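Methods — Computational structure assignment.
A single polypeptide chain was analysed. Its primary sequence is given first, followed by the predicted tertiary structure written as structure tokens.
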Amino acid sequence: TEVTEKLEEVIMIWIKQIRRVLVESEQMRREAGDSGPSAELEHWKTRMSSFNSLLDEIKSTRVKKIISILQAARSKTLKQWKELDGNITIAANEAKDNMRYLYTLDRFFGPLAKASPVTMMEHVPSLMNTVCMIYSTSPYYNTSERMTSLLLKITNQMINTCKTYLCEG
């Protein structure tokens, strides 16, 4: 029982830390007002890396041993642990999936950033078709919040490109 209690204390510390990570990942992002779509891609890359690291840690031999000891002891802390484990898996899957979809837009980021307004407009129909495809097929990216953020960043990039073109011309 003494060992079980110590392990339960360890698990409770991990649960608090993981909950903090999950809460922070869901909070509003602070970004520059004129950030482009590359910032969206970077955000999801970072988030995917963080959650994959967390999943690797949870799946480590050390953690598995602790969990199996607590299972044998029928610890009540495991219910919370399993719920968090599921939430981390969902967050990691979301980040991975969003990365996959955003990479389909990556080919447009260069033309959006470096083209003249005229040549940039040649890419807009294909870009918007890709955004529509993401909206209609992505299980995580099809919310108005996610789409608004993405479209805002695309618009920011187009405005920045036009400003640069006008200042250089």
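Note: The longest helix spans residues 77-103.
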